[in-house]
Amino acid sequence: MIELNSIRKAYQTGSQSLIVLKGIDCTIEEGELVAIMGSSGSGKSTLLNVLGLLDDFDEGSYVLNGQNMDGLSEKAAARYRSDFLGFVFQSFNLISYKTALENVALPLYYQSVPRKERQARAMAFLTKVGLADWAEHLPNQMSGGQKQRVAIARALIANPSVILADEPTGALDSVTSDEVMALLKEINSEGITIVVVTHENEIANQCDRIIRLKDGRIEGANA
Amino acid sequence: MMDRDTWLEIFHTVLSNPLRTGLTGLSIALGIFILVVMQGLGAGLETGVKQTFGDDAANLMEVETGNAQLAFRGRKPNRRIELHNADEQAMRSQMDSVPAWSRLVYRWGSTVRYGNEQGSYGLRGVDPDQREIGQVNVTAGRFVSDRDIAQRRKVAVIGGQVLADLFPRGTKPEQAVGSLVQVRGIQFAVVGTFNQSGSRWENRSVYVPFSTAQQLFSNSDVVSRVAIGTGEASIDDTRETTTSLTGWLKDRLVVHPDDAEGVWVDNRNEQAEMYRQIFGGIRLFVWFVGMMTLLAGAMGVANIMTIVVRERNKEIGVRKALGATSGSIVAQIVQEAVFLMLISGCIGLLAGTWLLQGIAPFVEHEFFSNPRVDFRSALLALGVLIFVGVISAIGPALRAVSIRPVEALRDE
Fold this sequence. Notes:
The structure holds two protein chains of two kinds.
Chain A: E1 2-13, E2 16-28, E3 33-37, H1 44-51, E4 59-64, E5 67-68, H2 74-84, E6 85-88, H3 100-109, H4 115-128, H5 144-157, E7 162-166, H6 174-189, E8 193-198, H7 201-204, E9 209-214, E10 217-222
Parallel strand pairs in A: 3-8, 3-9, 6-7, 7-8
Antiparallel strand pairs in A: 1-2, 1-4, 4-5, 9-10
Helix pairs in contact in A: 3-4, 3-5, 4-5, 5-6
Chain B: H1 4-16, H2 18-53, E1 60-65, E2 67-68, E3 79-80, H3 85-94, E4 100-114, E5 117-126, H4 130-133, E6 138-141, H5 146-151, E7 155-159, H6 160-166, H7 173-176, E8 180-183, E9 186-194, E10 205-209, H8 210-218, E11 225-229, H9 235-252, E12 263-267, H10 268-311, H11 313-321, H12 326-359, H13 375-402, H14 405-410
Parallel strand pairs in B: 5-10, 7-9
Antiparallel strand pairs in B: 1-11, 1-12, 2-3, 4-5, 4-8, 4-11, 6-9, 7-10, 8-9
């Protein structure tokens, strides 16, 4: 599903160049639930951004779902994101003035799906994450766990091949964290590849495999 | 693309900070309001001036005499210059053929009596061509004819106000034709009536044949004025004629070439041209001021959109992560700006139209009439609004496009 070969990436800060990714090689198979761990500054967020086509890379190759993602135009990146990827963020990133239902339906808006169908599918996914009764609530009327479940429903609605989760439990207490992880595992069991970036061992240990990053390189891979 | 979600986005932006939006909208509304009101007042002024002066044809020139101010060829200053019949005939014979020619002799404050009613009106002795030159609108009967001139008939063509004043209430113009009136104590037959719309003092006059008037009321062979129709002649041709005719007249009547008051030729074409230029200038000025005001408003909208984009940095990043293309982001911001412009612009347009309609009945004046917004100007203003809206949104929209999703998401 995901193949990375010698991915390198540097940020230009003033006159200095900060190399963040120093040659990443890794393969993630379809249907895997993988954790990416590493201390802050290890490059794990950058790696997730590269995987999510949110940021470009300097060298190497990235094959997603059999297609080369090298040197994409912004428009093509937007299309691949829309077709293949779903995102779950630490701070949920729900749009504050839209209801749960509208938030979930938003990705379909950008795929020009008719409104009625968007609403129906959004409702189905909200039901799936157990929030059917909260469809008309605004994000600030919901708890953190509920918001993250809305975000997961939003990530799922466009029927992605891969879900990228950046510290999905970082803003949640341990009980809701477990609920969110259980939901992610349930989704994974339906065949969707999931990559979770985390710094919590408890979360990482619930995954099939852990990729540890240190100073821009992969330290070792556990099965 | 303009479905319910698009509208929701727009309403959210517009309503998220009502005060800021309101103030920006106010500046746009005010801009359009000022444009509409000034344009309406300009149109009112133009209509008013045209109604007062416009009934006289613009294609004529008039020869008049006055007091010569300068000594010339042994003659003393401040002497009365008169145009006599012989001068008039010589002038006519030395000119090329002219489309229309009328001698005039005036007697202001002439008493006209019908039965027991009487009033004081302007008496004008004229030639038949005066009908064409003065664009006299004959409502019944006929105007002065060549035979009237030749036979010095005592016939009169009376104005609408004279008819209304002297004849019984409800007398129709055709009923007045054939009746007898006393003009300065002499009996005249009414052969026609006329009515000049929008000109009160024109309607307070009585036309009689020039020859009759000169003989009965003038006691001399002085011609008060000669009106010459210029037909289709161009403004430059009439200027040339004016100059050569003035030179000829000054020579004949012994007036110093630099004397402006002895005898002069008043070229109405020139005045009409001047009015055209003045009103063209006013229109240009109105649009210029309106555009500048709108520009200030557009800067306000550009400003608000920049702030909106900055505030929604993160949201735009999230949208991009969810598959929004640059095009859809640009479209959204442009739509928001145009929406804001259009709504405020329409408010300004309606307020301006409403004000003009409200004041119209109270500002009727000799030089001011019927202020209004014409449909074309309104459409043009709305077109300008949309254009300015798009322009004002481009900067902020490009800024939004340049936001990379990852940067927006990092911004916490």
